[in-house]
Amino acid sequence: MLTTSAPLPSSADAGTRLRRAGLRVTTARQVVLEVLAENPHVTVAELLPLVRTRLSMASTRGVHDVLTTGVTAGLVHRFDHVGVAQRYELSGFDHGHLLCRQCGRLEALPTAPTEDVVSGLCSRCEPAE
Questions:
Q1: Domain residues of the chain, as ranges?
Q2: Over 90: is that where the pLDDT of 72 sits?
Q3: pTM for this entry
Q4: What's the CA angle centered on 11, arms 5 and 15, to 5 degrees?
């Protein structure tokens, strides 16, 4: 996965972000935001096992609830594309995204294009020159 040019928030930022958004700081919310900060562009299926390493009792429903609340509060960005699983990242990064038309992978672009997501071939699918 490509990384962003902006620094990733530290784990201490999760509580601050939640409070600034007017949300109660819970362990589940903090853990999901921390893991999301370390792993941008993930699906719930990819996120859940990572969350469970820190919060063993986390459920799929619980992670969905945190993400939905985060999207509503503007803390989390959700990428919805037909035929591709929803992917999530923390909001606030200034970069664009490339959605691979071959494998469906979502990658960060170093610059922000005029569109939120552009279509093309990712670094894995692009033929070597």
A1: 12-92
A2: yes
A3: 0.71
A4: 115
